[in-house]
Amino acid sequence: MKVYSFSRGGLRFEDDFAPGRVKSWLAFLPEMVIVPLAVEAGSRSIPVVSEGRDIEEGMLIARRQGSGSANVHSPIPGKLVKTIKWAAAPGFLSDAFVIKLGGSFNRLGKPEVKHEWTDLNWFELRSLLDEYGVIEMDGLGRPLCDIFSKNNMTDAPITLIVRCVFDEPWLAAEYCLCKERTEAVAEGCLITARAAGASSVVFAVSAAERELGRALLEAAKRNAASGQITFAEVLTGSRYPQRSDYAMKAVMTRYAKRGGPVKGGLLTLGPATMAAVYDAVVFRVPVLERHVAVGGPALKHRAVVKARIGSRLRDLVAECGGFTGKTEEESAVATIGSPLMGRAAASLDEPVLKTSRSVFVSAAKRRGVSGKKNFLLSKIGGFLPEASCINCGECRSVCPLRLDPEDLYKTISCGRRGMVNSNCIGCGCCEAVCPSKLPLCTAIVRTPPGGDARAV
Ligand code: SF4
Ligand code: SF4
After folding, report:
1. Which of 56, 180, 321, 378 counts the highest number of beta carbons within 10 A?
2. What per-residue confidence (pLDDT) applies to 333?
3. What is the 438 CA–ligand 2 centroid distance (Å)?
4. CB atoms within 10 A of CB 439
5. pLDDT for 167-217, tens place per residue?
């Protein structure tokens, strides 16, 4: 079977600090959770409970208010002790509820009741996804119903691409989820296809995981009620950033040219979203927990844990045995998401969100150093003094978009941000290979117009 990939650039990204893809374990219940009421910048959900109120596990605590927002549910039972301000995005503050654990669980440890969904139409399925606040869990966190509505603006056919591509070790949580909940992920794809109006489902699977791809495909075919949906599997390369929208589009274009069943618009979602769709429709439960890969040089152990949404990062640190002897909490810095594309957490009190798939914890926090740069520097064992470009050309050779990161960085460093109009996807390959450890990608993606790249 042919393996499809993007044509140039990229890198093999290995990391000994990432957890193994063996098996997840259930994290201890947190004594307290922090639940933000916004999923993305500009969105706000309206609280439906007030401070001091007793809360049940899975209870609706804030209601969706228009496009971009989603219903919010309590991941634990307890009491809503206070409302705090939470930075959902740079420059965007929203409310977050602090809930203290207490009372009894009405879901944990109880048998789940399965609901039949095959008689439901797309509208009824979307209503359920709306009700249980299902969002895109491996992307920006957009509510699923918003994505479906946008895709349905035209009558063109839609292909659902299920992104089971593992191009870097920090995707261990996604991998474990796929292995542990293969049937749920596959059935979630069928439900999503009907809700979105997709006529074909393509499992995009890393070539190294053929067995997983076959298992997903067989499970989906087994559960499909009729022959209305076409299923296929496409094998992809495993060079980072194979998983990016850019690379996936390149793969699907080539696959379609060779006769693959890819028609019309692409709706690309990951396995965590498929499992959430399944839980919302079949078990009628919101997302209460998620698989998170936790590791880094500052931690004693590395693991994939199933953590309650809203657990603080310090709870995950404790779950992994705490810090190594040399690391002090004050000097620890956590990066949320892929270490190459992730963002630095403000503190270990930041909560696990529905979109948090990995957390990397390193030591040696320094003022003015981003989480990503801290990560890259931790790989070489420390901080470099102010370094400059040595013109080695490594950054150009790995850029999948054939850009010149060195040139872009230098232009931005001269204060000419306005002259840079690149289509950089922020993959971080250039920054990862730069021997001078210049913050290339960070500068290209994050420097505001008129800003100085050296300050990022
Ligand atoms: S310039 Fe952008 S697209 Fe190219 S390697 Fe750097 S981050 Fe990736
Ligand atoms: S990789 Fe770094 S040092 Fe080498 S050319 Fe690019 S910016 Fe300069």
Report:
1. 378
2. 85
3. 8
4. 22
5. 999 999 999 999 999 999 999 999 999 999 998 999 999 999 999 999 999
* DSSP per position, 106-152: SSTTSPPPP---TT--HHHHHHHHHHTT-B-TTTT--BHHHHHHHHT
Q: Which domain holds residue 169?
A: 3-19+110-283
Cβ-Cβ contacts under 8 Å for 244 (sequence gap 6 or more) = 400, 425, 427
- Rounded CA separation 71/84 (Å): 18
Quick check: 143 and 64 in contact, CB under 8 A? yes
- Tell whether 129 and 84 lie within a shared domain: no
Predicted TM-score (pTM) of this structure: 0.90
Look at the chain and report how many structural domains it folds into.
3
- Residues lining ligand 1, judged by CB closer than 6 Å? 398-399, 401, 403, 405, 424-430, 440-441, 444
Cβ proximity of 284 and 294 under 8 Å: no
Q: With H, G, I as helix, E, B as strand and everything else as coil, classify residue 64.
A: coil
What is the number of the ligand 2 atom nearest to the C-alpha of 392?
4
Six token digits for residue 456: 């990022």
Ligand 1 atom nearest to CA at 9 = 5
Q: How far is the CA of 398 from the centre of ligand 1 (A)?
A: 8
- Please give the number of the atom of ligand 1 that sits closest to the Cα of 431: 6
Give the whole-angstrom CA distance, residue 105 versus residue 204.
38
Name the residue of 425, 434, 438, 445 to mutate for ligand 1: max ligand atoms within 8 A of Cβ.
Answer: 425
Which residue's C-alpha comes closest to atom 2 of ligand 2? Answer: 434
